[in-house]
Amino acid sequence: MDFLTIIQVLDSTVRLATPLLLACLAGLFSERAGIFDIGLEGKMLMSAFFSAAVAAVTGSVWLGLLAGIAASLLLAGLHGLASITFRGNQLISGVAINFLAAGMTVLIAQDWFQQGGRTPSLIGGGRFGPIDWPLSETLANVPVIGPVYAELLSGHSILVYVAFLAVPATWWVLFRTRFGLRLRAVGENPAAVDTAGVSVVGLRYAAVMICGVLCGIAGAYLATALQAGFVKDMTAGRGFIALAALIFAKWRPWHAMWACLLFGLLQAIALRFQNIDLGGVVIPVQVMDALPYVLTVVILAGFVGKAIPPRAGGEPYVKER
Amino acid sequence: MDKMPKWADVVLIPLISLILAAILSALVILGIGEDPVAAVNMMVSGALGSTYGWGYTLYYATNFMFTGLAVAVAFHARLFNIGGEGQAMLGGLGVALVCLYVPWPHWTIALLAACAASMLFGAIWAAIPAYLQARRGSHIVITTIMFNFIAAAFLNYMLVNVMRPVGSMDPATARFNETVHLPTLHELLAPIGINFSKAAPANVSLLVAVLACVVVWALIWRTRLGYEIRAYGHSETGALYAGISPYKITMIAMLISGALAGLMAINNVMGEAERLVLNSTEGAGFIGIAVALMGRSHPFGVFLAAILFGFLYQGGAELALWTNIPRELIVVIQALVILFTGALDNMVRMPLEKIFLALRKGNA
Predict the structure, then answer these.
(1) Closest Cα of chain B to A41: distance in Å?
(2) What is the pLDDT of residue B2?
(3) Which residues sit opposite A276 in a β-bridge?
(4) ipTM of the assembly?
(5) Which domains are seen in chain A, by residue range?
(6) Is A2 exposed, middle or buried (0-12, 13-18, 19+ CB in 10 A)?
(7) CB nearest to A103's CB, from B147, B293, B332
(8) Is A218 in contact with A23 (CB distance < 8 Å)?
(9) Does residue A298 sit at the B interface (CB-CB below 8 Å)?
(10) What rounded mean pLDDT belongs to chain A?
(11) What is the pTM of this model?
């Protein structure tokens, strides 16, 4: 395996890690506030469809992005309604949202475009194009640093950079602002937050909505940057891999980035090499597919440090008995 | 004192939730420019208008009874088993191994063996998440989700690399032997003079599913173990105080749940496909969630809800065949049912409780 191959695999790692990272940070906000969210997948899918559909109709990818975020927010609102206002089971609500998105996207796609549940392919302004960093052409021939700069850092779509900038931003919001402190407190001990005179419901809705926005960006990235258009079930379990990454990272932003990069790397390797031959021992591609989940189970089992979720996660807050 | 009479809790709330889901589904059909009344008519005639339709409806219902019971048993112990899909996949592997590599003299013995194998494989797949929940405190919902994906990858590997017949491109096992063919409803009903459709896949597994409903009912409400499971589900601390081991109940409830989900394979793998294919479960494990919620985790409720979903599935297939409405409409309906009967339960319950309280005050 030569240097250029490594760079190419790492490059596709970054591309594949981006939707995971956005969804993972989305889940981070929600779960830190005590709202479990297994509906990341559904929100991404809904956003992927509406961003691609609106981008295809209007020819503007930015309008598509807005539409995707709006669609994702709608589902986030539904999740909030079920799990905060009506104190329902957050896990069941998440399951419902995943199915709702899986069904509605195909239904609407068929109605609007009649192409068997997909949108037309996006061209030109309908997609997020790569952003070339200054001098990447000239530097490309410099050994080692050139390819790293030109291939790995430069030439991604803007949403990739948004995703990676969202990591320090998330860290800063959660750990350096009053809002973040309260948000984390509401996931650990909502009664204390309530006693301090801060609205538990308001904070949780805020967290769920931030989650919706990030999932919206993740879905839009899938349909308008990573690929050119929406196809049925295009999220392909990424919402759950993001969930796995979140646990893997033990609900911390920087660790979330590394976990998503690791899972992105696994996807990139599986995509490029299929079955890997390690001197006689062949690792089948399915092992690479299953590895994120196996790793998460190992982490969950507490064999490699214990993953402790926010204490009030999954429990609706009841003010008085 | 209960806020509501029991019948309201058991019948009225699911009914209202169902009506809400139906109204929204009708709006969705209207939204994509089709006629909801015509769609319902077509679904009824397609799913219930002929023995062919009934055969498919009952075939799907058989799947959903198994997975619905699986989710319901776990619900009684307040465990949410989302892993029915993976457990059913593994059950399929068990059935395939038994049917392919053992020369059975007669289908009855083969069915018993297949039941045992599918239950064993399903239970094993549920055992690991159950152990991790009971002993290491990892959340069962997350682990069962992960195990669904691991099961899919594992089955993919087995079918592509191990069990695929030489020379075949299709990632599936060879066809099972003729002797393990399960009698379909056509073959069962022909001797007593009922001419049931030959093409429909409903088979003797339906009887096994009904039997499973009865057994689960007896287990939950008529045995000591069932009492312990329900007690644990109601209050973990209360159960602990009564000397019930949380570890034991978590493990047993999940093993039963996994075994029931695995048992589904006798219907879809042995009864219908007669070989193991990729994605043989077709999401039935997830529909079990809707079925269990709709049926209020009671075996009889699960039985009715499974037939309702069987009807929706077959009706939806007919719609997709004859109209512009894609099959995914059923996924939407399923989502709405889960949403209203599961997540938004309080939205229906709270106003109803107020009404009943007001009525009671009026009477007193």
Answers:
(1) 12
(2) 64
(3) A283
(4) 0.88
(5) 3-127+141-300 (1.10.3470)
(6) exposed
(7) B332
(8) yes
(9) no
(10) 87
(11) 0.89
